[in-house]
Write a structure and sequence with these properties.
Elements (H helix, E strand, L loop, with lengths): L1 H9 L1 H28 L16 H7 L2 H33 L4 H16 L2 H11 L6 H8 L12 H29 L3 H9 L4 H12 L1 H15 L4 H6 L5 H4 L2 H11 L3 H25 L6
Length: 295
């Protein structure tokens, strides 16, 4: 015991530097999480008694058809974002590696990365303007191609989920592309030289050298996407409207509606903890499927 105390005292400055970090997580992460878990079992009110109601809040959420519609929308939008958002950055990174002009490569990297820096207020506004039936560039191009009438993408339920998927991919594609490019730069050139000696063409170099070297980065990107994909909220708040609400209302928006608009705090908290469980299940499933722990 004395040895342990001496070790702690020896590195007291390190532990002192850790204290603000630990305090931050305790105050702003763990305490709210525990407090929220307790509230999910209460009929919570700001003033007056807050009686425990057991699993009543959870049963209310599970028995609400609106919740299951939100779950369905979340899984469809999340699945599309995961699939398209997994493929496009890889394709873009591989395409940029074939660019020989340095200035053009750097310019392209900057252009595709900039949307990642914008908030969803900005990104949503850009997409709403681009898809406008009157002045949007997309409908202008469709009209030039011979389309009989403009398409109102933002109020047509058939396009609603695709708009959210593609805008989400567009926003973060540049960030993940940079991760892949950083990995490609670090690939040992001797692997390419050996493949060329064996007669490999450009496509075979990409298929048998570059892509296998990207596997570990791909796993990291998948896990980053899975961890946050069910927590879609800002995008929906900015881009939804009454005409497409049934197609784009997700679990986080359901929780917001119950907690902030209807002030049913217990039900909203129960919904949020169901979302946490779903995220954990999805994360462990993805970890097992992609064999994340295997190098």
């Amino acid at each position: 015991m004395n040895v342990r105390l001496k070790a702690v005292w020896k590195f007291k400055s390190v532990y002192a530097m850790m204290l603000p970090v630990v305090a931050y997580f305790v105050l702003f992460s763990y305490y709210p999480l525990i407090r929220g878990f307790i509230i999910s079992f209460q009929n919570y009110r700001l003033i007056g008694n807050r009686p425990f109601v057991g699993l009543a809040n959870y049963m209310t959420v599970v028995g609400d058809s609106g919740f299951w519609e939100a779950v369905s929308n979340t899984l469809l939008i999340a699945g599309g974002t995961l699939l398209v958002g997994y493929i496009m950055p890889v394709v873009l990174a591989l395409a940029l590696t074939e660019v020989t002009r340095t200035w053009f490569k750097k310019l392209t990297q900057t252009i595709v990365y900039v949307p990642h820096l914008f908030s969803w207020v900005v990104v949503g506004g850009i997409w709403i303007m681009m898809l406008s039936p009157d002045t949007g560039i997309v409908n202008m191009l469709l009209k030039a191609a011979g389309a009989p009438k403009p398409i109102n993408f933002m109020s047509d339920p058939a396009y609603a989920r695709w708009v959210l998927i593609l805008s989400a991919v567009w926003k973060d594609m540049g960030y993940y592309c940079i991760l892949y490019l950083a990995t490609i730069v670090g690939i040992n050139p001797s692997l390419y030289e050996a493949a060329r000696i064996d007669g490999a063409n450009r496509w075979q170099l990409v298929r048998f050298v570059t892509i296998p070297q990207l596997y570990n980065t791909m796993k990291v990107v998948v896990m980053l996407n899975v961890l946050g994909v069910l927590r879609i909220f800002d995008q929906v708040v900015v881009m939804r409207n009454g005409a497409i609400a049934k197609q784009v209302d997700v679990i986080m928006y359901y929780t917001y509606t119950k907690g902030i608009q209807e002030f049913k705090i217990g039900i909203a908290t129960a919904s949020s903890f169901i979302l946490i469980v779903m995220t954990l299940v999805l994360t462990f499933a993805a970890r097992a499927i992609i064999r994340y722990d295997e190098g």
